[in-house]
Records
---
Amino acid sequence: MSNKTKRVRWGIIGPGMVAHRFAEDIQSVFNAQLLAVALRSQDKARAFAQIYKAESAYDDYRFLAEDTSIDAV
């Protein structure tokens, strides 16, 4: 990655089937990273985060929205 290329740090809210595919695809994009996921269930959020190597798992959508390290949701 060059110095001019910014890594886009993504957050996913309410992962369903489409979100799983999106999270898989993020892994193959050189300037993208899945940073956080939010679901109403902390256990499910952690499980999703573990599968796709996201750093954070939230059980409240507001926490993800307030995470200043995320560039896009």
---
Amino acid sequence: MIYIVDIDNTICESINSDYPNSIPYTDRIQKINELYDNGHTIIYWTARGGNSGIDWTELTTQQLQDWKCKHHELRMRKPSYDVWIDDKANWIFD
């Protein structure tokens, strides 16, 4: 399976877009790493920079490394939205 995973407030706490001071949720990262270890494709896709135009790629890449997030790909600037409605939506942290 292919998993698209948001970053801010999904695998870390990010208050007011203060990305340099985001705090990782290690339990959630562990669950996603288990999916990776079980052969699933993990793609982190973040909206960082989507509205501001700031390129957060370098910081985000370093954070994923520092937090030991296993993944296949990082995608930046996903669409900004309030609700994403999709027939495949599922929450793995329940």
---
Amino acid sequence: MCLLGFLSLLIAIGYGVLVRQELVGTTKLGLVSKTALFFAEIPANLHSILTGEGQTNDLRVKEKRRHLKVKRFKNKSGFQGSPLEREIYLLLARYDGNEERSIVELIDLRTFEIIKIWKPDIDKINDLADTSLPEHQHLKRDKHSKRYLMTHPFLTEDGGLIFQHSSPLVRIDENSKLVWQNDTDQFHHSLEQDHEGNFWVPTHAFPYQLDKKHVGLKHGNFLDDAITKVSPNGEVLFQKSVSNILLENNMKLFDRRWIHDPIHLNDIQPVLSDGPYWKQGDLFLSLPLKSSVILYRPSTNKIIWMGRDHTSSQHDVNILDDHRISIFNNNNIAYFKKNEVDDHSEIVIYNFKTDEYSKYLDKSLKQNDVRSFSQSRGKITNNNDLFIEEQNYGRLLFFNKDGSLQWEYINRAKDDYVYALNWSRILFTDVDINKVKKILELEDKK
């Protein structure tokens, strides 16, 4: 009996190793580890089928903070506070817990009225993706309509949207019908338009652009984050590995902590006009795992500037004027076995003219307990107001330039859970407002 018990223990350990290798290991064991994972997932899959649970539970945000037993937003749902007086719109990208799907809503912030809703057929879109490509095989089980998030949607001139969710890049029309999709790579995180009308999107490039001596050839060995320029018609015009950008500019790339994902590119912000510190066509890149923001010039393949160690796990770089940028600093500190925000997240401003860093409306962010250890957005408007998406907690906030909170939005469903937001946009420029007016004209004609 002792021998049998010992052998059973060895078998259990071996089985666990096979499952772990298939899930997170860099070396897969082919059919053996795939079979082990299949059997390990049978109980969870049966429970999900029989009860309907497990499909969207991880899209619910954890409303309770560590060490606190009460909910952060108890009894709060939807918009709280006062509408704006001036014309600004919200492109609200969120997971609708009532409908169990991702939607995008265009909202007039003067009334909180929903002007338009986009609900594309996600299953149909995914069915068109080439899942024979290694970078899209995850779509077979993890990107069905109940789990897909329409991330950082861009409003087009004709009333449609362009979006992705670690997936092919997709464009739909004003009626939520598919116009095109590009599945050459796995597109992720931000989507921004440059001065020529093209779009810059982070991608995981595969086959890898790095020398195989660094990362090998097998898909899954490495996340080769690349800057990718896509035309309004969905054609890839340019692509460059960020790892190669660093190496070709004599900067170190690899260390023992982040050998698989040393970059984690999460934002590309195109420079739209010349200034004393940058040129039209330059790109600001956010590299959170290096606690760095860089200014890169594709025309010469040169890094013009790098800001390091003033942010941690930062997102969302924005150009404020001809000499300042703002950065949403998640302020995430990695502890043993966990990540946690150090007090609160911040809006950090860097002034190229004075070479100084400062914080914007920091007391207001602290007082309102703004914290998001990953994801999230922060945008200072042309009126010096501040829009925040606290993605980790499913909350939006709008601060006036004096620091007072004008309104907040909680993405709560009827089941009392708060669900994820997907990188919403605040629309306040003349270009954005003209787009909205065209949409209103189209809606009136229907």
---
Amino acid sequence: MKYFYTFLILFFCMPVIAQFSGSNLTELQYGELPGDPESFGSIYNKLNLNYGYKNFKFSAGAQLYQTPYSDRNYFEPAWINANYLNKGWNVNIGNFNETIGRGILLRSYEIPGGLLEDITFRSKNYFYRDILGGSVEYKNKKYFVKGMWGYSLNNVIPPTQDFDLRREDEILAFSGGYHFYKQTFEASFLKVKNSKNEASYGLGSLSGTISPSLSYYTAYSFYLDGDFENYEASNTYALYGSLNYAKGKFGGSFEVKDYSNFLIGTGINEPPALVKEHTSKLLNRSTHVLIPQNERGIQLEAYYQPSLFNTFTINYTLADNSFEEQTFKYREVFFEATTSVGKGTDLKFFIDYAEDPFKGEDDRISAGAFIEQSFNNDKYGAKLESEWQQFERDDSNVQNIANTLTFRKASKIYVSIISEVSTDPFLVSDSKSKKSWFGGSLKYQLNNKHSFQLFGGERRGGPACNAGVCYEVLDFKGVELRWNARF
């Protein structure tokens, strides 16, 4: 902690000609969460500071969480970084993010504004996964080389726990690549060590353009060596490929995956999931979560854009998971159309069909329609989002409904009314036939640096996905205030 405070002193004492910036997120809550006997108040705060001077950049951040429960509370100087960037060199010391093979070997990330609250530990922390250590990279027009070492963060475990639990995986990695004729070949090596195991992996990838409208990416990763018990190297691999086309009004993509025993360490890698990430509330909550230990599948998507304001999209997803003699096949077909009608009227419609044996959901049908209307030269507006879903589970019919009505004044004030209804037996008590959630929110955009958002009522939790990362959101009933600031 003393190094963090030393950094802050130096941070503010450096020459004023350097560039200074920062951000702060504050969340106040009072209400009920699952498993707690009564309502309680809490405060979460995340501060991030950035300082640039010539070819150097410095950053530091801290977060805290305070509740009436002492075992959930903490203050953590969470990250500190020094970066040097000049003439092809990129050097990091401290906390940094890195991805190898599009996440097949390693993926670190930050979900802006995202907060994670695990049901087991019941503490809240910022939604990110980084590496604490150092990295060196050099690149030019022909080739690049990179090396890194550090401890990867397991962000499911909150700052209330020991360092050894949160950063159990020690990693050592090297990557190198060569560019030729608009193609790129890359080879990578990763060694992971923790208290239980030690293993090494290799990866080779080839990517580039076949024509101005056609590009591709292929990667194969494999198990090299380690001390895993009963580990078969021939049955430990990850294969991924993608083909993308875009020309004029048409475009599309084709992706294929084949993953076997490829959960590295405590989960430092996240291979491409090949599952469409939906903006729809119900579909996002119903998404299939990748199982890298055993999953094969494909994803196809195509779009047609006849004009600037009209787009048609179709997506097909197939995921196959086999465990001993049982096979689970997740299938999903999605269609969406967006258009503008008249002056200031935007419409979007979607329909989706899926089979999800993992969740026991047969013949799942989802549909939704969004309409947004602006008034008085866009000074005012209104938006209605309505979604419906039904499926069969254990000979019972389940329905979910979600509606959101939003009114806005310019881009300053947004007032929303949110309601959800479900007949899912997993959520409904024996004495009722359905469960309802009702709430409202008010967002005030003071300027381009400060925004406030107030929520009151009851909010439904469940799975959620953002930037390819899926996590669990807890149910909440109460009042919540968020303040986002940049300076």
